[in-house]
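Lecture 7 notes. Example A: sequence first, then its structure tokens.
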Amino acid sequence: MSVAEAAKAVYESDYRVRMEKENLGKFIAIEPESREFFVGDTFIDAAMEAKTKMPKKMSFVIKIGSDAAVHIGSANL
């Protein structure tokens, strides 16, 4: 299982309900092996907090309350 898949599974099982009540629209970086998480106002905030606290581990960032962390381009084609 990839880091992304594992982090998404941790988010769904452990954090989704709580985070969507308390931090909707923010970003959560999850290190799936330890299940540690870091919440930030922006993608970079969450990612940098995870990297600072766990420099040798890989985390995955999810936008709380959304299916995608970042939208690129336009759906209006």
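Example B, a different protein, same format:
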Amino acid sequence: MPSMSDNRCEGRSPDGDIDEIALDRKVWWHIIPFVVVLLVICILDRVNIGYAALTMNADLGIDPAFFGFLSGIFFISYVIFEVPSNQFLVRTGARIWLFRIMVSWGIITILIAFVQTPVELAILRFLLGAAEAGFTPGIMLYLTFWFRKNRISQALSVFFVAIPLAMVIASPVSAFILSHAAWAGLASWRWLFVLEGIPAIIFGFGIAILVYLQNSPKDAAWLRGPERAWLTSRLDEARVQKETPRAIPFRQLIATPGILLLCLTSFLVGLFLTSLLFWIPQIVNTSGLSRSITDTGILVMIPYVLSVVVMYVWARRSDRLSERRWHVAVPLTVAAIFLILLSVPHNTLTGFILLSGAIAASYAAYAPFFVLVMDTLSPGLRASGVAMVNAIASVGSFAGPLLLGLAGGNIGSPGTIVLFLILGIAIIACAVLLVRNDPGASVSGE
């Protein structure tokens, strides 16, 4: 939530009609908690296969390499439909398009509970990626319709907190379902998909999105007329709507200075973080630190609880200083150092601590990174550009689980050590280039 200390210098607007502090608070509490809940549901349905694998893999005869493929195939369709989906969101409005996305992915998640073969599972995972494509970049774009530049990093940080928060929730909930749900002759992993797919259906057919969300401030009946006019005049929503081309402007996107470096950075971070979203339950379960599925659930929570705290604190600092590049480069460098240290001989506990530190540091860079992406793009390129960068991250998200599966699916194997070592060096190189690309660059607040 925006703090009084961050806003005390602003007070009322020059015309005396608008209390900016109160308006910021009103927008924050109406929009942010709701979209955080939506993203938590999204991440739960995306990564619950990682928990299901603790018993599902034996039932369906899935080996580590094929599980890596199953985890990653989601992102093939996700990448294909990511940019077009964000273009449609601009044309149809956020409410209608987010409604469509949630209903379709909720149905597919529940259908996964009834697969009988690995091939059927692969097909539904592919369809799940297609259904969900555009959700995360769509919400990112949507937040820029409500929050000004000196508030957007905090808004994004709390939105992105939903990713590690979903893992904090998923760990004990999924462990409980796997340990206790075995009703009507269905295995507990099947109930996992049913029970965690239902919330998306509720938010879809319950019409929560259609009733609660508005496309932009000018449609918000819960704001006063002067507040709607004042906020609308200070945001880029109208320019995004007007200037976004109907065709996907790939040539203009590629020609945007710095965008290729941002895409490479998102690829590397996506490769690492998404690998762990899917694999960390199995990594912890086989590490020797866990004696049961319940222990695994508790241990998996640790790096993600840490990430929740670090993400918000770091994003607030980025907004307060109106600086992005160093707030991306520093945590990425810290994460890379932890990854490189994993290649040094260590015991299991030390490896878990290093891995937890790398996860938390990577998430700290999330919000400032995407603010930097949006500030790099003109309003007309923002919808497709944010989606493209996120799609490239999703290419890494496909490659990561697959590579980790081929490497053996644990942090002590030689293949995983080499993978993390190379990844750490590459991330440090990107961090250096991000700073050198425009030394001392910062995004000025309003």
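Note on Example B: The chain has one domain: 4-436. The two ends are 19 Å apart (CA to CA).
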